[in-house]
Amino acid sequence: xxxxxxxxxxxxxxxxxxxxxxxxxxxxxxxxxxxxxxxxxxxxxxxxxxxxxxxxxxxxxxxxxxxxxxxxxxxxxxxxxxxxxxxxxxxxxxxxxxxxxxxxxxxxxxxxxxxxxxxxxxxxxxxxxxxxxxxxxxxxxxxxxxxxxxxxxxxxxxxxxxxxxxxxxxxxxxxxxxxxxxxxxxxxxxxxxxxxxxxxxxxxxxxxxxxxxxxxxxxxxxxxxxxxxxxxxxxxxxxxxxxxxxxxxxxxxxxxxxxxxxxxxxxxxxxxx
Length: 273
Fold this sequence. Notes:
Layout: H1 6-24, H2 60-95, H3 98-112, H4 116-127, H5 131-157, H6 161-168, H7 173-209, H8 221-228, H9 240-272
């Protein structure tokens, strides 16, 4: 059995640190994250409120647990949709007619010419504020990465012997793509999907920070950072928890993707070696 790499172990640890409280928040939280108590405004961390309270007297730990859950859910949903759309477009470009390949790949190149955050911001501004528009914006921003990756991998694999053998037995393009090519490419797609989760969480937090993502009364990491920036000098404990959770979440998914990539390709080298 292959040894777990340090990157994979660190990634799993960091992801679990934020995933477990997010799952616990589905069943119980210390306080209602939307409940205001003006007598507890800017309450410092204590036994009653472990992370303190914000400028409305809301418990920061409860809001952080809810925000982590929403960030993870939005990231997973947007990356899954973006990966699905990108895989379909990549396969269509690689196995379809030349005009379709040219059109889809030039469109992907045009979208990748802009930074992902600018694409997401432009789409969020057009679609409007809210959770669903932000997920759609992040999803569209993720599609070019997965379409390009799938296209390049399918182009490499379509000349292999097992694909030629499938063609000789009369298999059509769809059967070749989904029964022969995709299973052999899943390792690279999974590592890309895992690494993209960190980017999706960061994009969602950026949109929420600018008021285009998750809207009140729900809490989000970006919104908590935006609300805390006015008090960062006088009450720094307002901004530190959401900032640290965002850092741990993004770093955890990036390390997890790197670890999976090392594990998969080390195993392939061992098999072929």
